């Protein structure tokens, strides 16, 4: 009955050499993610949440030392060369970053950029690729996609650009989507639309998703399972309901105490240092 | 009731922008702030909220006279300060100070904390009889930083500490009004809570008034007395905090409030009940978790 999970991370440790000796940015992280599920990774700046995603994508700087195991459909990723990773990135794992403007080349139309990404993996004619891209743009609900495909990144709003990044990630039908603070730079109404879109697309494609964020309210809505990270350690793991209704770690509780609630003015927010 | 300290009437700001084409000679006028009026009560907080590009930061700049308005009237304690000469402007600046979003880009990295905090005194030509060093120490203590760190540089502080330095600098000239432009937006949630509490303590102790510019409505709920909602340069709705949050009138305000992500209220209630019972385990299950963050404060 036990099938291989989509993603299995075991004892992942990421170490950087520094002037004052090696520093672990992620320490002994283990996690399992199945298809059609979302794993939320939440933590404050410097917690190691983004480093974890870069390790899965094989995008860590060359000075980083990685130990432990990351298996995608049973296939070991730790120790793969950059060349080997190129067939995995995009194809099997795709990523959506916080800032779409810095991930898009301002000199090329969005259509051309997604086409390039697609053809570098699948080859084929430009015409065929263009049809795939157009379809992807329509799936992320870009209105008037047939015309917009020839527009440049600056001609789109922040939310639309994030849709374009999602379209780029989707067109190769990855099994795993890593969304790293995908809505942090967006206005709250646009954020709601993008979160809805990601959920709908996941329903359609059945892919697994890792959702990295500093925003506790957002992660409570998108993820079924959650890892809480602090300074490179996983301090707590559980279902969203467990984490938010019965947090065990002192750090998780302190985060929830410090979080301002819109429906409820507190007399005093509880910061963790005074 | 309380006195109005700052009032803006029909504030409008137009920017001249280039025409459509990249090299087009034609010019367009863009109205970033369109006929905005507000009052700030002494000792109270007016929050101006809205999404990016709505004109809230431009309004903050008009209110603090960092930017000249195209039309409208600004009064400080009843006095018209719309057009101010050098002398009036200096007086205005000693009454109205600004705290910006990014603590590091608003603090000169090559200046010591003491020099940064005392700089506004120079601009305003304010003499400190008991000496600047003593004043700076007092201000550092006031914002919860170690007074012995006055000879350090901004790079030696965390983000939350750097923002406290920015607040100390704003307080140096003893202003009556502080304009906080996204002052807690760049901070982690635990540090953000500390800075919000600090701003509230300062208000209670010093009788400060705030204009609090923010996109984060949950933060605004914690700090504002009055809330003004802006969209596309216009003020669409203004009212007492709880009115705006519990009974918004304008469609845009409703949309904005509905879009804010919330934790499942059932989970929240369950957690609150557990906390009230005191059934939370007090032992720490984590290997390295500490009770404090790097923000450290007086540590």
Structural descriptors:
heterodimer, A: 274 residues, alpha/beta, Rossmann fold, four-stranded antiparallel sheet, 11 helices, B: 299 residues, six-stranded mixed sheet, 10 strands, 35% helix
Structure explained in plain terms:
The complex is a heterodimer of chains A (274) and B (299). Chain A has 274 residues and is α/β, with parallel strands linked by helices. Chain A has one domain (7-258): 3-Layer(aba) Sandwich (Rossmann fold). Chain A has 11 helices and 10 strands. In chain A, helix 4 (110-122) crosses helix 5 and helix 7 runs parallel beside helix 8 (188-205). Chain A is globular, with a radius of gyration of 19 Å. Chain B is an alpha/beta fold. Chain B has a domain at 4-20 and 28-105 and 182-276: 3-Layer(aba) Sandwich (Rossmann fold). Chain B has helices at 56-63, 86-95, 113-123, 132-142, 159-171, 189-206, 217-223, 241-246, 251-259, 265-277; strands at 4-18, 27-41, 45-49, 71-76, 79-80, 96-99, 177-181, 209-214, 226-231, 234-240. Chain B has a 6-stranded mixed β-sheet with strand order 6-7-8-3-9-10, with helices on both faces. A 4-stranded antiparallel β-sheet of chain B has the order 2-1-4-5. In chain B, a hairpin with a 2-residue loop joins strand 4 (71-76) and strand 5. The longest helix of chain B is centred in the middle third of the chain and has 18 residues, at 189-206. The radius of gyration of chain B is 21 Å and the shape is globular. The model of chain B is unreliable at 282-299 (pLDDT under 50). At the A-B interface, helix 8, helix 9, strand 10, helix 10 and helix 11 of A face helix 6, helix 7, helix 8, helix 9 and helix 10 of B.
Itemize the secondary structure elements and their pairings.
The complex is a heterodimer of chains A (274) and B (299).
Chain A: E1 7-18, E2 21-33, E3 38-43, H1 49-57, E4 65-72, E5 75-76, H2 82-88, E6 93-96, H3 100-103, H4 110-122, H5 126-139, H6 145-148, H7 158-170, E7 176-180, H8 188-205, E8 208-213, H9 216-222, E9 225-230, E10 233-239, H10 240-245, H11 250-258
Parallel strand pairs in A: 3-8, 3-9, 6-7, 7-8
Antiparallel strand pairs in A: 1-2, 1-4, 4-5, 9-10
Chain B: E1 4-18, E2 27-41, E3 45-49, H1 56-63, E4 71-76, E5 79-80, H2 86-95, E6 96-99, H3 113-123, H4 132-142, H5 159-171, E7 177-181, H6 189-206, E8 209-214, H7 217-223, E9 226-231, E10 234-240, H8 241-246, H9 251-259, H10 265-277
Helix pairs in contact in B: 3-4, 3-5, 4-5, 5-6
